[in-house]
Amino acid sequence: ARKRPDEPRSHYSSRLMFIDALIKGEGDRITDERIEVLSHCYSNVKYLSNIYGKDIMNMLRKYDPEIPMPPDIAGPPSASAS
User: Fold this and answer.
1) What is the mean pLDDT of residues 34-54?
2) Do 21 and 63 touch, CB atoms closer than 8 A?
3) Which of 6, 49, 57, 71 has its CA 20 to 30 A from that of 39?
4) pLDDT computed for residue 52 by the predictor
């Protein structure tokens, strides 16, 4: 992962630790492109307080439990009629 020009070193370091945890946890089940996208989502949530859909937020929290789960998406999964 490359450091973005506007990315502070501390944020980049944190993002690299997230990437490392993600690779160790997901292994071959995740593509390099997906890792890159999730790492940017991670920075956006951690440092800019962005909120993504439940699946993304759960994935981020899985590898960094300090990621807050907004109350409106923190509830149990809803049953689908599929």
Assistant:
1) 95
2) yes
3) 71
4) 94
Give CA separation, 67 vs 16, 20, 28, 38, in Å: 16, 16, 24, 13
Rounded CA separation 70/52 (Å)? 10
Average pLDDT of span 47-60: 93
**Virtual CA dihedral for 68, 71, 75, 77, nearest 10 degrees?**
-70
Separation CA 17–CA 68 (nearest Å): 18
Q: Taking the CA atoms of the chain, what radius of gyration do you get in angstroms?
A: 14
